[in-house]
Amino acid sequence: MPDHDDILSDAEREALATVSVPAAAIQKVLIVDDNRVARESLTSYLKTKGIECVTAANAEQALKCLKAERDVGLLITDLRMGPFDGLELIRQIRESERAALPIIIVSGDADVPDAIAAMHLSVVDFLLKPIDLDKLVALVRKELGIT
C-alpha cells in the first residue's frame, strides 16, 4: 500500500507556500503632536530609517486616522495637546476596537503622576523630550516586528 502522507513533493509544497501566504502588510507609525515642527521632524527621521509614518495634529485627528488607516501598528503621541491630551487619547483607544495598539508617549512637559497614569494605560514607554532617537527607533522596530 503506498504511503499517502507525501502527496506533494518538497518543491510543490514550497511553490504552494509562496502562493498561499499573503505578504504581511507593512505597518505604519501614527505620530500625534500638536507641534508641527516636532511632528514633521520625527516623521522625517523615522522615514530615513525605513519606517513608514502618518501624522495627526491632535487627538481627534488621531482617532479618525486610526479608523481610516487599518495598517497603523504603533502610535507615538505627545502628552500635552488640545482639545484633549495624550492620556485621554490613550484612554479612548484602550476602550475601542484598537485597544491592543502599542503606544509610546513622548513629552517635554510631564511629571510623575503623568508617567504613572500612562503606565496604568499599558503604554510601551514614556520618553522625555529631547528624545533619545536611537532608543525610540529600537522601540519602534521591536513593536512593529522589524529586524
Give the key terms.
single chain; 147 residues; five-stranded parallel beta sheet; Response regulator; Bact_response_regulator; Sig_transdc_resp-reg_receiver; phosphoprotein
Main sheet strand line-up = 2-1-3-4-5
Helix content: 40-55%
- Which radius of gyration do the C-alpha atoms yield? 20 Å
The CATH topology turns out to be: Rossmann fold
Please report the distance between the alpha carbons of the first and last residues: 47 Å
Strand element count: 5
Shape: elongated
Verbal overview:
The protein is α/β, with parallel strands linked by helices and 147 residues long. It has one domain (25-144): Response regulator (Rossmann fold), CATH 3.40.50.2300. Helix content is 44%, strand content 17%. It has helices spanning 10-20, 36-48, 59-68, 86-94, 112-120, 133-144; strands at 28-32, 53-56, 72-78, 103-107, 125-128. The protein has a five-stranded parallel beta sheet with strand order 2-1-3-4-5, with helices on both faces. The longest helix is centred in the N-terminal third of the chain and has 13 residues, at 36-48. The mean pLDDT is 87. It holds the Pfam family Response_reg.
